[in-house]
Design goal:
The protein is α+β, with helices and mostly antiparallel strands. The chain folds into four domains: 20-54; 61-221, Sandwich (Immunoglobulin-like); 227-303, Immunoglobulin-like (Sandwich), CATH 2.60.40; 323-480, Muramoyl-pentapeptide Carboxypeptidase, domain 2 (2-Layer Sandwich), CATH 3.30.1380.10. The chain has eleven helices and 28 strands. It has a five-stranded antiparallel β-sheet with strand order 3-4-5-7-6. A four-stranded mixed β-sheet has the order 9-14-13-12, covered by helices on one side.
């Protein structure tokens, strides 16, 4: 470098009219232009020398820090190295998390920030910062100080939400240099309509190189057990050697919907062995919530079959009489044009029963009496639209099979399942026969009558026959020995 300037100094270029400025250094006079070149050369020389010196390993510094959040932690090893008046900052981040989804999201964010996976759980990147590393390191340490950039979750880092419930994100608190930050990036894959685990991420940009991140896991769960509804009675009674026919059932789950097809039924009823049997219905939904209920089936003793005499069955004008008693059920129908209206004898007996009950403070109001074939048809069709033929036929008769068409049957008190537990229902059960009535569809006789227990439905037989049926403890079909 000195040789170059010596040669330049010895070259003389003179031109007519040049204005030559000189400066005296010792005994020599130097031209100002030559002096400027000399100074610049020295500066460039020193620039190269300084860079070469600062690039030496002894000027390579390092810094280590840890980050701990509620659901992940990192350990970062940072090196600072000067090169050509720039500082190259190399970050090596080791990531740990017990939450798989959080780990996956954090790694994805690191890759988006320019980090590269060098080995398991470790990610590296190098950035260039203008100036010497001493200042860069100070800035780096200040920015990564937890007091400089405060970032925390509101609420819990791990939320559990029951399927079907609303969820409002509690959000976060963010400050940089003690100033609240309003612009915080938020992303979530949360889906309230599907059971599973989700993540919400929050990003706070501290500067163009550094972003702080928080994550919240949201678990949508289904802990509600499915419901099994039994058709027919929960307790059924069978005669000895009578086959058990399953009345049916449905299973509904709040998340999976109709899961009737998944119900497992354990049926071990022995028709030839008197006793009480339990039929078990069990089902599990997709979240492994289990429901188990039972139906009790009683098989009666063999000698309890009362009617051993063959019944006398007669048909007159399409109407069936068994031992002189008009019978209508699912096997014996009435003609469409059969229209006797309300039976006067039966109606008078009903009014007497209502009057005596009223004295005791009981209300046996008439809900329904005679119904024609046409009216029954319309009523039954409405029930079919609501519940389907199979279920409707357990609590409503098809046209031609309704006792109300005989004019001998009445619904009194209240047509509701809750009526069973009222004083009125208990009084009817104990005293109806005294007025010539029986409860036509008794409790635990669904398998015999084909209908659910109806404590409000009474049928007139006359006091003598009604008393005998009451004392037998049998349904009318059993008493008469018919199906």
């Amino acid at each position: 470098m000195l040789l170059i300037f010596t040669i330049w100094y010895k070259i003389k270029i003179r031109k007519r009219g040049d204005i030559v400025l000189t400066i005296k250094v010792g005994k020599k006079k130097l031209k100002i232009f030559n002096l400027i070149i000399l100074v610049l050369g020295l500066i460039i020389f020193l620039y190269f020398i300084c860079n070469l010196v600062f690039m030496l390993p002894i000027f390579k510094t390092s810094y280590k820090y840890k980050t701990n959040t509620d659901n992940y932690e990192t350990e970062t090893f940072v090196t600072f190295k000067n090169k050509w008046f720039n500082c190259y900052v190399t970050e090596s981040i080791n990531v740990k998390s017990d939450y798989k989804l959080v780990y996956e999201y954090y790694v994805k964010d690191l890759l988006n920030d320019g980090y590269k996976n060098t080995k398991k759980d470790t990610y590296n990147r190098t950035i260039k910062v203008n100036g010497f590393c001493k200042q860069a390191k100070e800035n780096y340490k200040n920015i990564h100080d937890s007091k400089y950039a405060e970032f925390m979750l509101n609420g819990n880092d791990n939320e559990t939400i029951e399927y079907g419930n609303n969820y409002i994100d509690p959000y976060v608190i963010g400050k940089v240099n003690n100033k609240p930050v309003k612009e915080i990036d938020m992303f979530s894959n949360y889906n309230s309509n599907k059971v599973g685990s989700y993540v919400t991420s929050y990003s706070l940009s501290v500067n163009k190189y550094y972003t702080k991140r928080l994550y919240r896991t949201i678990n949508v769960v289904d802990t509600i057990k499915p419901k099994i509804n039994l058709s027919g009675d929960n307790t059924m009674t069978l005669n000895y050697d009578q086959e058990y026919n399953e009345p049916g059932f449905t299973a509904i789950d709040n998340y999976d919907g109709d899961i009737t097809s998944l119900v497992k039924v354990s049926n071990k009823v022995n028709k030839n062995k008197p006793g009480t049997y339990k039929i078990t219905y069990s089902v599990s939904d997709s979240s492994n919530n289990k429901t188990r209920i039972t139906r009790e089936v009683i098989v009666k003793e063999k000698d309890k079959v009362v009617n051993k005499v063959e019944p006398i069955i007669e048909k007159k004008d399409g109407i069936t009489y068994v031992n002189g008693i008009l019978v209508v059920n699912k096997n014996y129908s009435l003609p469409k044009d059969y229209n006797p209206k309300v039976n006067k004898e039966a109606y008078e007996a009903l009014k007497k029963m209502q009057s005596d009950a009223k004295v005791l403070g009981l209300d046996l109001s008439l809900i329904s009496g005679y119904r024609s074939y046409t009216k029954q048809e319309k009523l039954f069709n409405e029930y079919v639209k609501k519940d389907g033929v199979k279920k409707a036929n357990t609590y409503s008769a098809k046209p031609g099979q309704s006792e109300h068409q005989t004019g001998l049957a009445f619904d009194i008190g209240s047509v509701d399942s809750s009526f069973e537990n009222t004083s009125e229902a208990k009084w009817i059960q104990q005293n109806a026969h005294l007025y010539g009535f029986i409860v036509r569809y008794p409790k635990d006789k669904t398998d015999v009558t084909g209908y659910i227990y109806e404590p409000w439905h009474v049928r007139y037989l006359g006091v003598d026959i009604a008393t005998k049926v009451k004392e037998s403890g049998l349904a009318l079909e059993e008493y008469l020995g018919i199906n």
